[in-house]
Amino acid sequence: MEELGSDGWRYRGTISPRTLPSLRRHLISWLRRRAGDEVGRQADDVVLACWEAMANVLDHAYGGRPGLIDVRARVDEEVLVITVADQGRWESITERDDGGRGLRLIQALVDGLDLRSTADGTVITLTWPFPVRRTA
After folding, report:
1. CA 108 from centre of chain
2. Residue 78, Cβ density class (10 Å: 0-12 exposed, 13-18 middle, ≥19 buried)
3. Residue 131 burial by CB count (10 A; 0-12/13-18/19+): exposed, middle or buried?
4. What residues form DSSP beta bridges with 90?
């Protein structure tokens, strides 16, 4: 994990069933340090949406096997932007058995969602209005 100044956090490395819980804990910690109590319930929505996005990478891009993931979080002009990128190959929603329920869950939790797939992998960008910690 790496901090990118006061407004950013990044993990670039392997995702596996063993690393997924650690990613969640680090993201929660960064959110709490960034906004403290001001983030409130929003942190739960952010973490659940990101957890689902990262779990989807593990399940759908890599078939449950370890693979590369790049997760970035930053606050940009009072908007929290989180990107989750992989280098795997996803099946289309019509090919999948679950019909995309995870994506619907993510959509319900975020303010904005952009999903792009190419031959090089998939990038999902999630956004929320984000409280800025004010100093007195």
Report:
1. 14
2. exposed
3. middle
4. none
Please tell me what DSSP assigns to residue 102. H
Rounded distance between C-alpha atoms, residue 32 and residue 57, angstroms: 25
Cβ atoms of 49 and 106 closer than 8 Å = yes
| The pLDDT of residue 94 | 46
Give mean pLDDT, residues 4-33: 85
For the record, the structure tokens of 88 come out as 């795997």
CA 99, CA 106: separation in Å to the nearest integer? 14
Q: What is the pTM of this model?
A: 0.84
Place of tokens 């190419």: 118
pLDDT exceeds 70 at position 53: yes
Tokens of 103: 């994506």
